[in-house]
């Protein structure tokens, strides 16, 4: 069965994607949900609960929560290691990664990637980088070098500004780290050196073929397009809203990109060959807590469809990747995060 798991403060809804209906509700109230990862055997979902300072583990065969693993305060982002044995989740209060053994459902280590013992961070891991990983920290003007086998920090690379988003290109064999609010540092992992800087912003997304990077500039309502083969900016595309999460939808010899706009409640559809927005797709709105500064909209994608949670309408918007049209599915919960598991699933 192709399933969509919808995580909300009221509980977890399980959707049969083919039938377009909620088939089960898991009574698990009181959580806030951010990043979620599917285990390599597709039997578990690990998802961050920053409100509870824990990682919630959902068994997909039983459709029930089987563990709540205490980690540091405010876990936001999580990552699967290349060997598929561990999940690393980051505590923004501590500037530290907590290492979770997938088989034993236990925390087996902690790795601090911070000069001050705090800070929002992300982890760049890739099979081509071997046992080396790069960790960012939004208050450090550096990238921390991590040995993921021995679970320790082994050095750092100075950057021109605070490090945040990350990507690795299989085409250029370079790492890309956003530096400050307007730059992307290009790093050679063989030498751990910054070889050049490009225009960008505070976030970064890369196509599956490793050839194209996109950095959304929210204040200017546009995205910067970077060619990884030349390590050059090749275009800027205006969007109909404030761009946040990027999804690549390459098909039928066309390079189509979805840009999820936050406050405008729509998706900009970009054609990278024509370097322009070709349409917008309306989606439901989200609940924005009063005073919250950092607001994001993400989703989950299959080869056929894109799923975007809309907490304000208690629904999930389903985008057809061929027709580029949207249809809402009412969930009855203020869905914050969705994870698709099934045919054609894509996990980043």
Molecular structure report:
This protein is mainly β and 348 residues long. Helix content is 0%, strand content 54%. A hairpin with a 4-residue loop joins strand 22 and strand 23. It starts with a strand and ends with a strand. The mean pLDDT is 95.
User: By helix and strand content, what is the structural category?
Assistant: mainly beta
Helix content: under 10%
List the quaternary state of the chains. single chain
Ranges where pLDDT stays below 50 over 5 or more residues in a row are none
Report the mean per-residue pLDDT as an integer: 95
How do the strands line up in the largest sheet?
Answer: 31-30-29-28-33
Summary?
With 348 residues, the protein is mainly beta. The protein has no helices and 33 strands.
Characteristic terms for this protein:
globular, single chain, 348 residues, mainly beta, 0% helix, 4-stranded antiparallel β-sheet, 33 strands
Topology at a glance:
Elements: E1 3-8, E2 11-16, E3 21-26, E4 36-38, E5 44-49, E6 54-59, E7 64-70, E8 75-80, E9 86-91, E10 96-101, E11 106-112, E12 123-124, E13 132-135, E14 142-147, E15 152-158, E16 163-168, E17 175-179, E18 183-188, E19 193-199, E20 205-206, E21 212-217, E22 222-227, E23 232-238, E24 243-251, E25 254-261, E26 266-271, E27 276-282, E28 300-302, E29 305-310, E30 315-320, E31 325-330, E32 337-341, E33 345-346
Antiparallel strand pairs: 1-2, 1-32, 2-3, 4-5, 5-6, 6-7, 8-9, 9-10, 10-11, 12-13, 13-14, 14-15, 16-17, 17-18, 18-19, 20-21, 21-22, 22-23, 24-25, 25-26, 26-27, 28-29, 28-33, 29-30, 30-31
